[in-house]
Each structure stands twice: as structure tokens, then as C-alpha cells.
């Protein structure tokens, strides 16, 4: 089947897990108390803090909300409120050039080649859409945001839920069998396949030192870099 669009995950797929875990998450964890104290009253921030408070029995003190959020960072919770707040915090880091976002060179090259060939590219990540734009806007390969036609986060639903991919397919407007989804997580690929998308497991040896072969691939095509993703 022809591929007419590509949907890609970020962490573990275009970019290393260690950048997210060792740079982005600790930055957000450290900055959270000051960020909440400085901006906690802004409606766009308050709404997410209140969502966390409600989910935790109606906590009143911001200091406790911060502790809950820091616990979620430690657990790598993919919670929409946490992801939205992290995105706002990382904006400062990118602006101050405290870091640039890691992107595997093969991913940057293939994304550029596919875009040049006229293939629409989309992102689906647990990171919030603003965080995704910052990420690709300040990548090691420069500003890659012009390559993308659309951005999706967990406001479309969880990444292991087939309905999320149906929602994205409807938004993209291309039939599911003509969209290729790339991810490092087989459960995400399972959900995308259930929704009718084509799938490829990106199995990066830097992130997953033991190659996932046989049953561990759940029958998804497997490659180790974007250079081996076939789109024709
Ligand atoms: C683009 S924001 C940084 C990554 C992040 O917070 C995250 O949760 C990434 O999850 P993914 O769905 O891209 O594996
Ligand atoms: Mg991932």
C-alpha cells in the first residue's frame, strides 16, 4: 500500500530517551517550584494546577501540587496537565539556550527528504503540542518545524488507545492504511495498527541495547534507523 503521510513519535523514535530523561525532565523538576510561584495565577497555568489538585482530592496548597507533579515526573507519567506545564517550563530553557533538543541525524535527514518529496509529516507525542513545536524548533539540526503539517498530543487520547489514532486519521484526512506510524513502543504501534495504520518499530540500539526481535516486535516491521524506513 502506498504511503501518503507519516506520523511520528518523538522520544525514542526521532530523539533519544536519555535527552528527555536526563535533560528535559530534571530541568522541569528543578524549575517547577519557582514557575508555579511566579505564574501559578495565570489562567493558562492555573487550569492545569487545578486539574492536578482535583485529581488528588482537592489539594489547596501549591507546594503540595508541585510535589505531586515532581512525583509524576519521577514516574514518567504521561499526564496531559503535567505535559502542558512541562512545555511552558521548557520554553524558558530553549529561549535561554540552556539546551537544544536531541534529534538523531538519520531522523533529521529522512524527515527533510520526505518533506522535500512532498510527503506530509505529522507528530504524535505525549509531549504537549507547544512542547513539540519548541522541541523541533530548537533541535540539534536547527528549526525543523516547517517540515510538519500537523501536531497531535494526548488531547487526542492516550497513545496506547486505538481511538486516538482514529481521531488523528480523521483530522489528517488521509485513509488510515495510507498513513505510516513510527514509534519505539510496540503498544503504541499495536493501537495504531488496530486503527488501520501501517506501522514500523524504530528500535534504536542507543535507547534499547537489546534488539527487540521475534515476538517482542508484535509482528511490526522493525528498523534501527530512519534510513531503513521504506516509504515507496
Ligand atoms: C516533545 S516533549 C518531550 C518529550 C516528552 O515529554 C514525552 O513525554 C515524550 O513522549 P513520546 O510520546 O514522544 O514518546
Ligand atoms: Mg516514544
Gist of the model:
Helices cover 46% and strands 11% of the residues.
Which structural traits does this protein have?
single chain; 232 residues; Transcription Termination Factor Rho, Rna-binding Domain, Chain A, Domain 1; 2 domains; six-stranded parallel sheet; 6 strands; 46% helix; binds the ligand CSCCC(=O)C(=O)COP(=O)(O)O; binds magnesium ion
What are the SSEs and their pairings?
Layout: E1 5-8, H1 17-39, H2 43-55, H3 62-75, H4 80-95, H5 105-116, E2 121-124, H6 129-137, E3 148-152, H7 162-172, E4 179-183, H8 186-194, E5 198-202, E6 221-223
Parallel strand pairs: 1-2, 1-4, 2-3, 4-5, 5-6
The structure holds ligand L4RZE5RM and magnesium ion.
Enzyme class: hydrolase
GO molecular function: 2,3-diketo-5-methylthiopentyl-1-phosphate enolase activity; 2-hydroxy-3-keto-5-methylthiopentenyl-1-phosphate phosphatase activity; acireductone synthase activity; magnesium ion binding
Subunit structure: Monomer.
Strands ordered across the widest β-sheet = 3-2-1-4-5-6
What's the CATH first level of the largest domain? Alpha Beta
Profile the largest sheet.
6 strands, parallel
Overall SS class: alpha/beta
Topology as a string of helices (H) and strands (E):
EHHHHHEHEHEHEE
**Contiguous runs where pLDDT drops below 50 for at least 5 residues:** none
**Number of helical segments?**
8
> What small molecules does the structure contain?
ligand L4RZE5RM, magnesium ion
Mean pLDDT: 97
Our Rg estimate from Cα atoms comes to 18 Å
Q: What's the architecture of the largest domain in CATH terms? A: 3-Layer(aba) Sandwich
Q: So what's the overall shape?
A: globular
Number of strands: 6
CATH domain fold name of the largest domain: Rossmann fold
GO molecular function: 2,3-diketo-5-methylthiopentyl-1-phosphate enolase activity; 2-hydroxy-3-keto-5-methylthiopentenyl-1-phosphate phosphatase activity; acireductone synthase activity; magnesium ion binding
Catalytic activity: 5-methylsulfanyl-2,3-dioxopentyl phosphate + H2O = 1,2-dihydroxy-5-(methylsulfanyl)pent-1-en-3-one + phosphate
InterPro entries: Enolase-ppase_E1, HAD-like_sf, HAD-SF_hydro_IA, HAD_sf
Cofactor: Mg(2+)
